[in-house]
Every structure is written in structure tokens, then in C-alpha cells.
Amino acid sequence: MNPHNLSIEELKQTAAQVRRDIVRMVHAVNSGHPGGSLGCTDYFVSLYFRVMNYSTDFTMDGEGEDLFFLSNGHISPVWYSTLARAGFFEVKELATFRKLDSRLQGHPTTHEGLPGIRIASGSLGQGLSVAIGAAQAKKLNKDNNLVYVLMGDGELEEGQIWEAAMYAPHHKVDNIIATVDRNGQQIDGSTAEVAGLGDLRAKFEAFGWHVLEADGNNFELLLPALDDARAATGKGKPVIILMDTEMGFGVDYMMGSHKWHGVAPNDEQLEKALQQLAVEQASDY
Q: In what residue span(s) does the Transketolase N-terminal domain sit (predicted)?
């Protein structure tokens, strides 16, 4: 079971706090990736505070619990904040983000031993393959829990994604829930301009996936979609959610623009962001 199981109103407050962490983390070191992190915050908060079955007594093998893998590792700020707020490590460690000898590197790695992190990620295109392997391991271990993985939509330009997309249905890996962050933006511009992705639903359905779509910035719509995804597992097909988000969601001057993919706010911009991300009881580190 989920150790938190928050209400929707509590989820909204938690998401606002996580977004405050994100902008403060990247501002402090003048580097990092706020845009995608802000856009995916509601998804992370939904998983870790409502949906996933896990324990904060972290083990690498994760037997008897749901697993999560982040393929687009550059949005590490949202994952680090979520893990800290969920109780994997102390919130004050967020202040070490991207600093020398920190466990919170710009892209997640395993050799620092940060609880919650099972693979190094950030070399795009690899996460789906890893998640499928973990899902098959769960089947071999007769572990009925699920494997979740998040990918970016620009990441779908990597060929390895489509090799994995072909593999999973063939082997009936039906205990995985993949999600694509469909924000329409990547580092060089919109995905439509860089390399149009076409009809993703039709493509994944043609490969043999069970496809759902969701609004990733609305808890009232995202949570039912995640419930539907869980209900669709175990039926012979892998499951994927095409999740529409807006890059920079929650901070008006960042929203909808690829320009905030990997740029930190300055002092004035930080203050403006924090004003927009008000919470009832802020607990900034």
C-alpha cells in the first residue's frame, strides 16, 4: 500500500511545495532543468503520495513493492524533491543539488547510494528497456507488483525506445505502466519542429500496447487515469499513458516554452516563482 495516501487537496499542497523546491534548487546552483520538472510534478506526487505501493526502507531489488524508473533523467529536481518529501532522505539534503560530492547529481546515479534511485539515467532512450527487464524479473520472482517508467516525448526520437516498444508486447510484459510526458517541447524547440512524432496512440497500439491518455496537470483527471492503467495490467498487454503536460507548469513565465528546458531563474525570477507557488505552510529547506 502507499505509505501516504493523501487527499487531492493534500496532493495539491504537496505539489506546490515540490515546485518550490525545484525552482530553489536550480536557482541555487544556476543550473538544472526546471521546465520538465515543473510539468511532471503532479505525476510524481500522484505516484509517491497516492498510487504506488512502496516502502521508504529502500532496497535495490525492490521485492514486494512497485518500482519507478526515470528515463529522462535531466528532470532529476522533481524526483529528488519528491523522494525527500516522501521520506527517502532528509529534505535538507536538497540544498546539495548539483554540488561537488553530493548524492544529488544533475542526472541520477547509483554509486552515491541515494535511496530511491536504482539506475543511472539521463542518457536518453534507455529507461523503457530497463523497466521492461525489471518487470520480467518480477514475473520470474512471482512478485505481483508493478513497474512504472517515465519518458519524455522528445526522447521518443531515440531508436532504443521503439526496440523496447516492440519487445514488451511480444513477451506479454503486462505488469508495466509506461508514461510519456507529452509536453511538445525539447531542448531545441517544439517536438513538431524538431522531429514530428505523429499519432503516438496509433503507433503504440500498432506495436501492441494498451494506450491511455491523461491530463498530467490536473489531479482530478490524472488519478483516474492512473487507476485505469493499473486496472489494465495483467491482461497480456503492456500499458502506456500519453500524458499531456505543460512545460514549466505553475510558473507563468516558464509555461509552454522550451527555453526553460535547462535554464535556472535569476534572483528576481525566483521570487516571482515562489509568490506563484504559495502553500498554506511552506517548509522550504
A: 14-280
Cα 226 from Cα 216, distance rounded (Å)? 10
Q: Is 282 domain-assigned?
A: no
Per the structure, the count of domains in the chain is 1
Tens digit of pLDDT for each residue in 50-105? 999 999 999 999 999 999 999 999 999 999 999 999 999 999 999 999 999 999 99
Q: Write out pLDDT tens, residues 175-187.
A: 999 999 999 878 7
Residue indicated by cell numbers 521520506:
87
Nearest Cα neighbor of 223 from 18, 7, 21, 79 is 7
pTM over cut 0.90: yes
Q: What is the reported pLDDT for 280?
A: 78
Q: All 3 cell numbers of residue 272?
A: 516571482
Is position 103 within any domain? yes
The answer as to whether 209 is a domain residue is yes
What is the CATH number for 71? 3.40.50.970
Set of cell numbers at residue 7: 487527499
Residue 254 lies in a domain: yes
Low-confidence ranges of the chain (pLDDT < 50): none
